[in-house]
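Please fill in the sequence for the structure shown.

STRUCTURE ENCODING:
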């Protein structure tokens, strides 16, 4: 077993029940919109505003036909709300016009939607459709470089480096576990190497702290 699979297994053992921090209730539309909103904002805050947001906007069509400025009232507290509102409106208009209001599963279609980059597309493909996908967020990029699984700070390059190392059916859970691991142990400024189970297993060569 190579180091990548050993790391994946160790993370799975330590965090057996981890899932996406965005509480979308298995609704593809909700997860898509929440993922767009989550840029430079915490999952906790997105989860807090979501009940009111989706009570008013339960689907793509309700956003697409809404009055200018109405959506902003529901998302102003998440930061960058004006640009996010524009992206969400463009996304929902495309969903209605080209996909019958449904969230598509293929990468090219997802990337054609407003506000959707590879990180969001891979989240949707993995969590909604079970197709896998490396969600190269800041935790994934930082930790995979520290562990020697990736050698770049470019999200796309990290995604492409990790993709052949982690089986597709395990990629989504792997990325969700990296987020928790990054918050609890392998933080950006002060990683807790002395209490790291990966370090203990010889899977990380970082200095103990």
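FILLED IN BY: designer on duty
SEQUENCE:
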């Amino acid at each position: 077993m190579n180091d990548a699979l050993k790391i994946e297994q160790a993370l799975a053992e330590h965090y057996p029940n981890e899932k996406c921090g965005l509480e979308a209730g298995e609704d593809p539309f909700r997860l898509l919109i929440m993922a767009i909103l989550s840029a430079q904002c915490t999952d906790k805050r997105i989860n807090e505003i979501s009940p009111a947001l989706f009570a008013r906007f339960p689907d793509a069509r309700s956003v697409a036909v809404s009055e200018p400025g109405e959506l902003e009232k529901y998302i102003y507290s998440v930061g960058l709300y004006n640009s996010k509102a524009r992206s969400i409106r463009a996304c929902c208009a495309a969903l209605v016009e080209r996909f019958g209001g449904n969230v598509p599963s293929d990468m090219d279609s997802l990337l054609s939607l407003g506000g959707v980059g590879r990180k969001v597309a891979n989240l949707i493909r993995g969590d909604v459709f079970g197709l896998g996908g490396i969600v190269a967020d800041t935790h994934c990029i930082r930790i995979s470089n520290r562990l020697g699984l990736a050698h770049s700070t470019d999200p796309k390059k990290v995604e492409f480096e990790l993709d052949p190392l982690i089986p597709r059916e395990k990629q989504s859970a792997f990325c969700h576990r990296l987020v928790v691991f990054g918050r609890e142990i392998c933080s950006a400024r002060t990683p807790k190497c002395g209490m790291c189970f990966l370090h203990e297993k010889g899977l990380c060569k970082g200095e103990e702290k």
